[in-house]
Amino acid sequence: MVSTKMEEALNKQLNAEVYSGYLYLSMAAYFEETDLSGFANWMRVQAQEELSHGMKFYDYLVQRGTRVTLSEIKKPQFSWESPVDVFEHVLSHEKVVSGMINDLVDLAIEERDHSTNNFLQWFVAEQVEEEESASDALSKVKFASEASNGLFLLDSEFGTRVYTPSTSE
Ligand code: FEO
Questions:
Q1: Which structural domains are found in the chain, ordered by start?
Q2: What is the 3-state secondary structure (H, E, C) of the chain?
């Protein structure tokens, strides 16, 4: 069992991960509308990853004999000014999520909950990758936006992204 405080915090993070999936799906829908189907694909893959993150919290709570409490998922933003604006949002969102994971680790340490701390270390490493991937994509989108057919070429590249389940799934 985990403490009540930790139970609440882990359930809150489950919600935040599912919300992230919802946000990226909203970004995918924005790109479908602007006919950048490769960009939409990139966001769909991102959304799938977030749902898998949410399921990791779900499974951990179950494993610890703790109640999974699902709560309302807030409505995501649905409109952006440009592809660059979208990817700036992705990077800032991932930084916020990294902060949330760090807060959870702080709580686990405070409570001397070594199991939860160990579980969270996967997310600590994952957030490094998430921020790097968002930052790389943002640089590419900025660069592509300045070239005449840059977005078209990048759309083909983003269209090849596939969802790869993590090894622990
Ligand atoms: Fe689940 Fe992109 O953080």
A1: 4-158 (1.20.1260.10)
A2: CCCHHHHHHHHHHHHHHHHHHHHHHHHHHHHHHCCCHHHHHHHHHHHHHHHHHHHHHHHHHHHCCCCCCCCCCCCCCCCCCCHHHHHHHHHHHHHHHHHHHHHHHHHHHHCCCHHHHHHHHHHHHHHHHHHHHHHHHHHHHHHHHHCCCHHHHHHHHHCCCCCCCCCCC
